[in-house]
């Protein structure tokens, strides 16, 4: 069935912009059924939540940073930023115009990271060196990134003084207060100093500076700092395009039940960039990717729009790691902390599972 789609007549052009959690799975799933192109600003897919572990253990990145070419064996790969989209084409920063019949926007978040896997691994070596050579570390931001980084450092480098400053009244505001409380208790038990309801004056800090001012005028000292203040939704590039009226006030693309962008017949959006009313998580971005892939395959095969699958939003479920063995997990009806939550995610961080979903060996086989 899959191989015959689009054969015998000119193959339709399918373009996916964004090779993150959702885009990589879409690419794997659509590469053989159309004239397929993946546009991503990097040559690789990095499993986003593994970066905190890779900072304390750089070799972890060998498995969690995956060259797009490892799973995208059939389509075209364009490693460049998309900067514009028209009704028929995507324009990249390198000046290429990529025509499409069907388009999927999956640019959840954008980050200024190196273009190649080797350069990204080198960057992790540098960050690891920064941690190793510091006695005291300031982490700015108490969302999942700040909390997970504090946990990784506290477990792997228990002698370092870690201070985490967060503007909110509690950590982890994207999940419930019980989960936040469990994370706070765990961090304190590992001697992480958590300062809530303060911000750090970011305008006057730089690498090498060792004193930091808080919003209340206190001075904090640390040998280095990490900013974990969250990434913007990756939709800035759409603001002057034909899709500008499809963005909501938060910069998210408005989609219908079939994951098509508001008012558009041949443009889908999946993952964190959508306005779907549910928690923004990678496992949900993957579920959306599979629904969009199915709908595109149906349309490519000449199927009726009314037969497209609808995406059902899910109840809240999220796991935050606390070092290599512990975590806090919020499920729809309960919240758990400690070893059991850690067993689900904290050791392998779903790397083996994610690699398998892309058709790769969970572990890299050595010759
Ligand atoms: C600390 C932390 C822990 C997390 N833990 C989990 C977890 O345990 N489980 C889970 O399911 N989720 C987790 N998440 C959430 C998860 O990472 C996101 O929900 C997921 O990455 C969203 O996927 P996406 O494909 O929509 O976007 P992303 O994964 O952000 O991918 C977007 C891609 O688009 C590219 N891009 C952006 N703009 C452009 C452009 N203009 N041109 C070309 N390419 C572009 C980016 O480089 C990137 O490759 C965690 C997040 C954080 C921060």
TrEMBL record:
Protein family per UniProt: Belongs to the FAD-dependent oxidoreductase family.
Pfam family, one: Pyr_redox_2
Domain FAD/NAD(P)-binding: 12-289
Keywords: FAD, Flavoprotein, Oxidoreductase
InterPro entries: FAD/NAD-bd_sf, FAD/NAD-binding_dom
A single Gene Ontology CC term: cytoplasm
Source organism per UniProt: Malus domestica
Single GO molecular function: flavin adenine dinucleotide binding
Designated name of the protein: FAD/NAD(P)-binding domain-containing protein
Primary role: Putative FAD-dependent oxidoreductase.
């Amino acid at each position: 069935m899959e191989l015959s789609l689009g054969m015998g007549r000119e193959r339709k052009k399918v373009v996916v912009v964004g090779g993150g959690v959702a885009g990589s799975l879409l690419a794997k799933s659509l590469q053989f059924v159309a004239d397929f192109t993946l546009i991503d600003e990097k040559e690789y897919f990095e499993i986003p939540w593994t970066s905190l572990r890779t900072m304390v253990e750089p070799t972890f990145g060998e498995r969690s940073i995956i060259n797009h070419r490892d799973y995208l064996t059939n389509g075209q790969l364009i490693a460049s930023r998309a900067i514009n989209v028209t009704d028929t084409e995507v324009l990249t920063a390198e000046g290429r115009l990529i025509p499409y019949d069907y388009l999927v926007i999956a640019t959840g978040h954008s980050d200024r990271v190196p273009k190649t896997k080797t350069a990204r691994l080198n960057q992790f070596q540098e960050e690891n060196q920064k941690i190793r050579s510091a006695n005291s570390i300031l982490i700015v931001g108490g969302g999942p990134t700040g909390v997970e980084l504090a946990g990784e450092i506290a477990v792997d480098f228990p002698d370092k003084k870690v201070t985490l400053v967060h503007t909110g009244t509690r950590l982890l505001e994207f999940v419930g207060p019980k989960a936040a409380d469990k994370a706070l208790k765990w961090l304190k038990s590992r001697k992480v100093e958590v300062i809530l309801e303060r911000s750090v004056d970011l305008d006057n800090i730089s690498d090498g500076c060792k004193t930091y001012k808080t919003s209340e005028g206190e001075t904090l000292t640390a040998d280095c700092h990490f900013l974990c203040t969250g990434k913007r939704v990756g939709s800035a590039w759409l603001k002057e395009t034909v899709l500008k009226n499809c963005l909501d006030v938060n910069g998210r693309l408005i989609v219908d039940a079939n994951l098509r962008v508001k008012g558009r017949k041949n443009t889908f959006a999946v993952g964190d960039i959508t306005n779907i009313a549910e928690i923004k998580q990678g496992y949900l971005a993957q579920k959306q990717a599979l629904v969009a892939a199915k709908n595109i395959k149906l349309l490519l095969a000449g199927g009726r729009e009314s037969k497209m699958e609808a995406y059902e939003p899910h109840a809240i479920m999220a796991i935050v790691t606390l070092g290599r063995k512990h975590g806090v997990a919020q499920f729809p009806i309960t919240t758990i902390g400690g070893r059991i939550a850690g067993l689900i995610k904290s050791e392998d961080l779903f790397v083996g599972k994610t690699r398998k979903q892309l058709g790769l060996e969970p572990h890299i086989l050595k010759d």
